[in-house]
Each structure stands twice: as structure tokens, then as C-alpha cells.
Design goal:
Elements (H helix, E strand, L loop, with lengths): L4 E5 L4 H12 L7 E8 L9 H25 L4 E8 L2 H12 L3 E5 L14 H8 L4 E4 L8 E6 L3 H11 L8 E8 L6 H5 L3 H29 L5 E8 L2 H9 L6 E5 L1 E3 L4 E3 L3 H8 L3 E5 L9
Parallel strand pairs: 1-2, 1-4, 2-3, 4-5, 6-7, 6-9, 7-8, 9-12
Antiparallel strand pairs: 5-12, 10-11
Helix pairs in contact: 3-4, 5-7, 8-9
């Protein structure tokens, strides 16, 4: 397994601290490195006076304390360093992730901290949209990884997401559910009222062909995973992808759902802003959105 560069973004909030605890137990490959980043936004001031400068220094110091606390926690298991950056988190986190050559970005879903507050739908969503690598958005209490749902739609992007997940140092006790969802054919109501037997038979054949294709994809992924995890369940579902994936992510014991960011495949289109974004916002567990390729790092 190739070591990974993981950028952990923190604002000092409870959710960000939970993300750090989650990351401490996350199955990264051995010898992976973590960069803990805090972005401090300095309010503009037309006055360059000692009190304003002192206020800015206090904000920088607070941000430094936040990332040092995170580094101390993460360094128990990983090689961890820190960086404090000034600017807007929505801009700076993607910029640093690309410049540093991050393989994964980790952040909390929401939180209001001393350094910078964010809500899912602003910073977290912007990071998922704009970083050039996978993003893990952590939700809920800190916990280990015992059960994961991996979404497959037949696109190259969803297959890459599944294989990225398989490349991690997954725990041998992990239970994985591979879920493939295809939408049924959409027909106007008027057409449905006059369908003849040949057309109904053709729709049945199409449905069976979709299931067969998806089942084959799941079987290939099962081969990639079976040597690394405790158990694998495969499910081929015909329905609305967003609803079905959220339902799967909401089952008892699910800690993580893995989706591709975008893709146009033979079965179902998965685009950030539709299925992936709906899962990101509505799944009750942590979400790993896989996108992009590794870029050349800058030390």
C-alpha cells in the first residue's frame, strides 16, 4: 500500500475535533502523513493600529493552538505537521490540498469554532466541489470503521471510488455492502397506458440486462475487497439512486458511505450536485467522496 498525504482541515469546533478522532482510527496505509490546517479569516480594517494588530495576532495564535492540539492527537499514530493559513477557507483549503499534493482531505461536516465557522453547504460543500482529490466529510460521534456502504453506478468514476476505498488499509473485521442502483426506464403516463406485450417484454429484458451488468461489476469489486475485509454483501437495486443510497447509509451500524463525485457510465450518471451531493447532505453517517488524481506535491 502506498503511503498517503492527508490534509485535515480544522476550525476548532466539536465537529472538527470529532473528525480528528475519526481520522486517528481511519485505515490509512502505513507511513501516511497528515497536515493539520487551520484557516484564519482576518476581518478587514482600515486602521493599522496596535489594538487591531494585537487582535489579528490573537486570531493567529488561536489558530496555531487549534492545529497543534490536532497534531498532538494525530501524532499518536501518524507523522503529523501543522500549518496556519490566512484567507477564506473555501478558497484556501482546495489551494493547499492541490499544492501539497493531498491524496485525501478530511474535515467535519459542520461546526462553529473560534477560528472559523462553517456549515455543510458552505465550506464543506465547497471543498468537496473544488479539491482535486477524495474528501472525507465526518459526521457524528468519533468511532471506528466497522461497516461501510460503497455505491456503484457502472461509471468509471464510481469504480474508481470503490477501488480507492479498497486501496486503504481496511480492517479485517470490516463489513462492506456493495450497492448498485439503476433507475427504471422513464416513460410518459400516456405511453404506459397503451404498452403492448412486445414493449413490456423489451422493458423486462432491459431490466434483466441492467441487473446482470451491475451484478458483474459488483462481483469484480468483491474480488478486490475480499482478501482485506471481514464480510461483503452485494445488492443490486432498481430505484432512485439518491433515495436508495441514503436508505442504505441509514441502516443500523453503518459508519461510512463511499460515492464517486461524478461520472457518465452505461448504467447511471452520478454527478456532484445531484446524487453525490444529496448523499453528502442527507446521509446520517460520514461520507467519502472520491474524485480526481494525485498531483505532484510541493513540500
Amino acid at each position: 500500500m502506498t503511503p498517503m498525504r492527508v490534509l485535515y482541515a480544522t476550525d476548532g469546533s466539536d465537529q472538527a475535533r470529532a473528525a480528528a478522532e475519526w481520522l486517528s482510527a481511519f485505515p490509512l496505509p502505513p507511513a501516511s502523513r497528515i497536515l493539520a490546517v487551520a484557516v484564519v479569516t482576518l476581518p478587514p480594517s482600515a486602521l493599522d493600529i496596535p489594538t487591531v494588530r494585537a487582535y489579528y495576532d490573537d486570531l493567529r495564535a488561536e489558530a496555531g493552538a487549534v492545529v497543534e492540539q490536532a497534531r498532538t492527537s494525530l501524532a499518536r499514530r501518524w507523522d503529523a505537521s501543522t500549518r496556519v493559513i490566512e484567507g477564506e477557507p473555501r478558497d484556501e483549503i482546495p489551494r493547499v490540498a492541490e499544492a501539497w499534493g493531498a491524496d485525501l482531505v478530511v474535515l467535519g461536516a459542520r461546526g462553529l469554532g473560534a477560528v472559523k465557522g462553517w456549515l455543510l453547504g458552505s465550506v464543506s460543500t465547497a471543498v468537496v466541489h473544488h479539491v482535486p482529490c477524495p474528501v472525507l466529510v465526518v459526521k457524528g460521534r468519533p468511532r471506528g470503521l466497522s461497516k461501510a456502504v460503497v455505491a456503484v453506478d457502472g461509471s468509471a468514476d464510481s469504480m474508481a471510488a470503490a477501488r480507492f476505498f479498497a486501496s486503504l488499509g481496511l480492517p479485517p473485521t470490516l463489513a462492506v455492502r456493495l450497492v448498485a442502483v439503476a433507475e427504471p426506464p422513464r416513460l410518459p403516463i400516456a405511453v404506459g397506458e397503451v404498452l403492448g406485450v412486445p414493449l413490456l417484454a423489451a422493458l423486462d429484458d432491459l431490466d434483466r440486462a441492467r441487473r446482470t451488468t451491475l451484478d458483474g461489476l459488483l462481483s469484480s469489486l468483491e474480488i478486490d475487497l475480499k482478501a482485506s475485509v471481514g464480510s461483503i454483501e452485494k445488492s443490486v437495486v432498481i430505484g432512485h439512486p439518491g433515495e436508495e443510497l441514503i436508505a442504505a447509509a441509514s441502516e443500523p451500524g453503518v459508519d461510512l458511505v463511499v460515492v464517486g463525485a461524478r461520472g457518465l457510465g452505461p448504467i447511471k450518471r452520478l454527478v456532484l450536485g445531484s446524487v453525490s451531493e444529496r448523499v453528502l447532505h442527507q446521509a446520517p453517517c460520514s461520507v467519502l467522496v472520491v474524485k480526481g488524481r494525485r498531483v505532484q506535491p510541493v513540500e
